[in-house]
Amino acid sequence: MLRVDVIDQRIISQLVADARSSYAEIGKAVSLSAPAVKRRVDRLLETGVLRGFTAVVNPEALGWGTEAFVEVHCQGNVSPDRIRQRLEPLPEVVAAYTVSGSADAIVHLRAANIHHLEDALERLRAVDMVSRTVSTVVLSTLLERPPAPEPG
């Protein structure tokens, strides 16, 4: 596991709250100089603790308001890499996970509407290694948050 101290955790918390914060603003919150914060952020990026900075987009505002989680069951023993390769070309797949249990993977789909979702599901089912799927359509999001850098 990568070593992250309390100050790193506080810096990460500041970045999660607002990734556009300046090093000076973060430094003020964590009692460090801006150059010291920059060095720590650079190290967190180099070690992979931070993977980058991004904008958080509301998918509904872009016309992708329908979503589902789909259990994917594969024929035979299929490697996670092969599953990923087959799912990558499908633009509606926003995330995919290997899981324990009877399914080989769980796929998160986003679509413009229920008809688009149905089309995406049909294309997912047509992937050569997929034997069956079990879909759950999301009605509403109750809670969605980034990982908390501070334990507890």
UniProtKB/TrEMBL annotation:
Entries under InterPro entries matching the protein: AsnC-type_HTH_dom, Dimeric_a/b-barrel, Tscrpt_reg_AsnC-like, Tscrpt_reg_AsnC/Lrp_C, WH-like_DNA-bd_sf, WH_DNA-bd_sf
Q: Which UniProt keywords apply?
A: DNA-binding, Transcription, Transcription regulation
Taxonomically, the superkingdom here is Bacteria
For the keyword Transcription, the answer is: yes
Give the CC-aspect GO terms: cytosol
The HTH asnC-type domain, residue ranges: 4-65
Family annotation (Pfam families): AsnC_trans_reg, HTH_AsnC-type
- What GO molecular functions are on record for this protein? sequence-specific DNA binding
Q: Name one GO biological process term.
A: response to amino acid
In Swiss-Prot or TrEMBL terms, this protein is called: AsnC family transcriptional regulator
Phylogenetic lineage: Bacteria, Bacillati, Actinomycetota, Actinomycetes, Pseudonocardiales
